[in-house]
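Two quick folds needed for the group meeting slides. Do the first one here.
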Amino acid sequence: MNKFITILSFSFAVPSFLSIFSLNKTIIVASSFLAFFLCLFFFWIDSMLKRKGSKIINAIFYFFTKIDDPYLILEQSYIYERIDAENWEFTKKYCLKSRSNTFDSYDDRFCWSGDSNSANIEALEPKQTVTNIRGETIWTAFTVKFNTVRKGKEVSTGAKITSLVDVTQTVRPFLSNTILRKTRLLRMTVKLPMKFKPINPKIEIHSNDTLSTRISSNPLKYNESTHEIELDPIEYPRKGWRYVIVWENPS
């Protein structure tokens, strides 16, 4: 409805603007209809690209996205693994490119809805440390520190979160990642033992509006050899969009 109102408003504004120049009425009316159909066309294109998740359009958004951080995320990888009925592990890996000569840390966070509030967080790479573990509303936030990385250089980093306990089976079956910073490549992996083979796994993409509108939903496959829900790497994930792997647990 809002888009339709926008189209009508723009279409009515065109003849008002042209009338200032006292143009022929036929030209004014024709221009109004042209503006109307052009708006319809561009809104249709926008809707189609959102549903298809066009890599080309996402790449355009990527290159024009402003970077406010002292680093660029070249690649981020989330690995969410169920160890057994009650225990999970969560690994977050990054390849970061420094945009500053003083870049030596980054902040990260995770949200766990299970029974344990005593998760163990360790740095993935040698000589890197996890510090300043803190609560931020529903999140557990932390800082990963490393040796200073000069501007233009890259660093591999990340954290592994263990002791995620879910005795009462309250954890919802999903892995979610909201793109908060400019990111070149996104990988998301869910590992589940055959005993917990997922039902109806799929990847959903949600927009960054207040309603978190679902843009697309596509089925995924569970690989019985690797025990993983298979998802191809996502190039140029859109900043602000939320990428979610969801599934149903077996009875």
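Then this one, please, same format:
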Amino acid sequence: MEILKSIEGFFNRFPEALEMGNQTTHADIERLPERVKKNIPEFWKTALIKYPLSNLEIGVPSDFGQPELKSVKREKLPLMSIQFLSPLEISENTTEIFPGFVLIKKSLFSRKSYLCIATDIESTQEGVFISINKEDPQPRLVFHDYGETKKELIKSSELISSSLTMLFNEAQIKNRNRIVSEDNLITAKELIKTLMEELKKSTLSTPDRIPESNSISEKEILNLIIEKGTHEITSEKIGSFVDILSELNELSISNKQEFWKRVHEIFEACDLHKGDLYFSEAHSMN
């Protein structure tokens, strides 16, 4: 199936993701209540067993409802973090948690059923649902407080990709979960050094707030994005880095375009997704 090929392609692009999720066994599926088990599409059972999808976090391009992002190409958009559910979590969302138990039911008025397979873990904490009646369903974000009936909930939901296949074709690893090579670390360090030197020259006011090269320089800033030793990027580190960039950018820098060009070069050197810089960059340029 195309869906399984796209999942395979995702793990080929990001082999580190093989260590980020959990493998499901046949026994895990068989232990589920029959009313849950029969509503999980066969292709998703196969995917859960074949690949470590349970509790795997991926990043999906999203405009987050921002009008200014509507015209941006999807590959350049910020990433929405979604985490796939384990079989047990699928069962709980199907039988115990609203709106899951509403969306899975069939009725005389609607033969369509929707299954929660993931959660938006950062922005809305809402569930990501797929139709169990489609071969390659469209994953959609369902807002629990935007309706009470299946019709109302689906009408107010938001598609996050045109199909499940496309979701995995576009999916990336979030920056905090990426591993940066030693060679890329060396390049990034040099770029940060250049950025800091240029900041000192181009800052029009409060130059004392720019770190000295022999105290907090490029090493400290690099350590804010890269976990020292393992070189793993964490949410706290990348968040701190972007915060520092935003703070430095408030210093009446004479050429903001050049400043953000350098920042993009650092992210490229570390093979980070640059869409996550969008909001900080857009705010600073206004």
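Slide caption for protein two: DSSP finds 13 helices and six strands in the chain.
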